[in-house]
Amino acid sequence: MRAGFDPRLYLVTDTLLCAPRSVPEVVAAAVSGGVTAVQVRDKTAGRRDLLALTRAVQEVLRPTPHVRLVVNDAVDVALLTGADGVHVGQDDLPATDVRTLLGPDALIGVSVGSPAELDEVLALPAGTADLVGLSPVWSTPTKPDAGAALELDGTRALASRARAGGLLSVAIGGISAATAAAVAGTGVDGICVVSDICAAADPAAAARTLRAAMAGELVAR
Amino acid sequence: MRAGFDPRLYLVTDTLLCAPRSVPEVVAAAVSGGVTAVQVRDKTAGRRDLLALTRAVQEVLRPTPHVRLVVNDAVDVALLTGADGVHVGQDDLPATDVRTLLGPDALIGVSVGSPAELDEVLALPAGTADLVGLSPVWSTPTKPDAGAALELDGTRALASRARAGGLLSVAIGGISAATAAAVAGTGVDGICVVSDICAAADPAAAARTLRAAMAGELVAR
Predict the structure, then answer these.
(1) Which residues of chain B make contact with A80, given a CB cutoff of 8 A?
(2) Count of pairs with CB atoms under 8 A, one residue in A, one in B
(3) Is the distance from CB of A38 to CB of A26 less than 8 angstroms?
(4) Which single residue of A175, B27, B138, B150 has CA 20 to 30 Å from A21?
(5) 0.80 cut: is pTM over it?
(6) Could you read off the pLDDT of A99-156 as tens digits, one per residue?
(7) Domain of A144?
(8) What CATH number did the domain enclosing A104 receive?
(9) Is residue A2 part of a domain?
(10) Residue B4 placed within a domain
(11) Cβ separation A101–B94 shorter than 8 A
(12) Does A130 reside within a domain?
């Protein structure tokens, strides 16, 4: 695992929601407001556009190397850009194969939406996955194919088991400033946000508001 | 370039057109009928399914190692499976990046639909790309986003320039047994077929018919 990954406020990009602003522009603002990690996700882009997008976001993050960059799904793009890691869903490459391709230093995250899916990650050889994305906390229009909502109780149960198994956990799905404190208080190591930052009129202010809402709620390790 | 790539009758798979038969089942039949190379293409599959599909096709091809296996777009899947190469379109990773990831021995193909796109491939450093897919010869329902049809004259012009530039060329798009001879006579090194084999009631017979139709038409190097 890439040392120093800070998942507290983890931005997952959505190209359409950022428009008409560019994704790198929104990322820059969000980082200035307190985003601690960035995942480039664009399931509709071809690999050529995704490579260019990832490089552009990487350029924006150059002055803040503590804000790690993760690529959703595209291991080839992560290899070409030297991104800090890859996040895979249940339809993407298995974490074991991602680890084979990326080597021991990469941050590998896996989406899990149920106890059974978490069990599969926990059963992997140590060092295969570093982080689980607990998803969705609530249903969200940005990921209509996601499973049933975990809600706070489900998130708390999965976060506890992830921590006991040595995995970082982040919660994702429909989290806004109004709910960030409650989600952060479930025992996760961070929250992932898409719409609440990408669609915000002022992404920097949105990130500041989220960080303020979460203050003191995350349980230190 | 992977030595011994034989592009004469190059099958590009389409999972939906093969159904209800599996892709490996159709590939096995097609190879028994004379297909000389196979490209696994499934633009709708997630990487996990594509990896499984590629491994299943690879298993089917194990007894015929002279029939090379190419993966469409997915460099990560090619790395994991040790496939013989990757074919990229204009929206996929640039050939230079694919070569970086796959190393000198892989077969790298690039789709080109115009003289300008062929110029870009010819301008790459020697050894970057090995093959161009001239596309589409005719418009085809299996690739509705393809550009204007090259028809026979356009295919002939591009094939001639590809050969002069040291590249293999194959023609793709709407080729059937009725047109295979005319396309093979344009100076390409092979023809690519999707529907005419994947949707055939008897894929082995379809491949045999195509090989018979092309007999004597391809110009040896």
Answers:
(1) 93, 97, 100-101
(2) 57
(3) no
(4) A175
(5) yes
(6) 999 999 999 999 999 999 999 999 999 999 999 999 999 987 766 676 789 999 999 9
(7) 9-214
(8) 3.20.20.70
(9) no
(10) no
(11) no
(12) yes
